[in-house]
Amino acid sequence: LRQIAQPTREADDIMYSIAKERNKEGDFAIFITSDKDMSQAITPLTFRFDPFKNKMIDEKAFEEKWRFAVKKLPFYFSLVGDTSDNIPGVRGIGKKGATELAQQFESLQDVYDNLKKVEKKRLKTALEKGKEDAFLSEKLFLLQYEPSHLTKEDSTFDIKNWAKARPLFEKLDFKTLVREIDEQSGTLIEPEDPMKKMTKYNLKKIVAIEELQDVAQKLKQVGFFGLDTETDGLNPLQANLVGMSFSCEDDTAYYLPLAHKTDEQHLSLEQALPIIKPLLEDASIKKYLHNVKFDLLVL
Predict the structure, then answer these.
(1) Which burial class, exposed, middle or buried, applies to 230 when counting CB atoms under 10 A from its CB (0-12, 13-18, 19+)?
(2) I need a surface site. Which of 19, 54, 115, 275 has the fewest CB within 10 A?
């Protein structure tokens, strides 16, 4: 299968864009995902298949479950939010209240244009206080279309290309799939360059300002580094920064404690910030993160 990626764009948006283009040519599209966010892309020609529930979801199935139209899903999530995607929603509005509003009004803009028609005082007050978060949440939830520049032929899968996946399977250590390819071809080949297993690594704790300066200088010279934040909670909008990890080598990582509740000596955020901030803001230095939305909101 062809790998598709576009710089600065999320996979959801790319999938949505391709499906939209296929629909325009009269083709069906199926998203194989359990991610409910992708349900907003459902059309008469686009479906979502949930592999965990073994269920195909079309417009009818969606409306039977959610009790409002597909087009109102961004409206609904602008109110309830989604902590897994760092979407705040409107404080004080839960699933029941959001469903009622989605059934009564056409869109988020419609509910704010007709706020006086919201009968429940609790919902009305929450909407008045959370207007900014509501529109931000809707923007974060909505899928964004950009031309994919892919033709139907570009993404067509040919079963004869199955064997071409072997080098990737070797790299990822997918032994069963490698063996399956070899059995189909009638040969059994030992990998030329088996993936190396890391057996030793060094973790260095940064507790002095001079140590932090040395690490920052090293990261700057290398020109890239991996970054991870440690927090005291899973909600990035409420969590406090406890520490940060950096690495620019295969076997060495650096940990900077900032707010540990122990007697161990460590730098405060105020002490570390003048050194960390320029490093993070320098666009010429590449940063690699996992779950980047969470880290960005924390920082």
Answers:
(1) middle
(2) 54
Whole-angstrom CA distances from 116 to 49, 74, 82, 104, 119 are 40, 22, 27, 13, 8
Closest by Cα among 236, 273, 248, 246 to 258: 273
Q: Which residues of the chain have pLDDT under 50?
A: 188, 191, 194-195
Is residue 41 classed exposed, middle or buried when 0-12, 13-18 and 19+ CB atoms within 10 A define those classes? buried
Report pLDDT for 1: 67
Tracing tokens 């087009």 back to the chain, one arrives at 71
CB 266 within 8 A of CB 260: yes
* Rounded-to-integer distance, Cα 223 and Cα 284, Å: 7
Structure tokens of 93?
């509005």
Task: Output the CA angle 293-18-143, nearest 5 degrees.
Answer: 35
Tell how strand 55-57 and strand 46-50 pair up: antiparallel
Domains and CATH numbers, the chain: 1-157 (1.10.150.20), 158-197 (no CATH), 202-298 (3.30.420.10)
- Residue 239's Cβ-side half-sphere holds a number of Cα atoms within 13 Å equal to 19
CB neighbour list of residue 261: distance below 8 Å, 6 or more residues apart: none
